[in-house]
TrEMBL record:
It comes from Nestor notabilis. The keyword Metal-binding applies. This is Myoglobin. Keywords: Cytoplasm, Heme, Iron, Metal-binding, Muscle protein, Oxidoreductase, Oxygen transport, Transport. The keyword Kinase does not apply. PROSITE patterns: GLOBIN (PS01033). InterPro entries: Globin, Globin-like_sf, Globin/Proto, Globin_lamprey/hagfish, Myoglobin. The lineage of its organism: Eukaryota, Metazoa, Chordata, Craniata, Vertebrata.
Amino acid sequence: SSTMSFSEAEVQSARGAWEKIYVDAEDNGTTVLVRMFTEHPDTKSYFSHFKGMDSAEEMKQSDQIRGHGKRVFTAINDMVQHLDNSEAFLGIVNPLGKKHATQLKIDPKNFRVICDIILQLMEEKFGGDCKASFEKVTNEICTHLNNAYKEAGW
């Protein structure tokens, strides 16, 4: 279904968990991407400017990776602000999914990869409760991004 069912308590705890990691959006966003590229090297093929960048250290210094890490976290932050408003949430998710499907042609499984790495980082930095508070959000994000792909004919 296209409506989301977050209780007020779930919204509040998810936002609290997200705020902890979003405070350092660029650094944490960069860490998430570098982990993805390191653990799933096939994902680097989508980013032509990463050619020749093999070490995690090189990647961490890259302005392009840092910029994209920040963009990813900013997009998720916009979604987190609208967990209690399905229409506004989908107004962010749908164009994003469509763009990645049609223009960028990114395999949608990579959204789950990124979300899992974010959850892993939350757990490492802030513990299991923080991760647990945000799990439902990542499931919603991935579900709705995948729906946008289906609608785009992926």
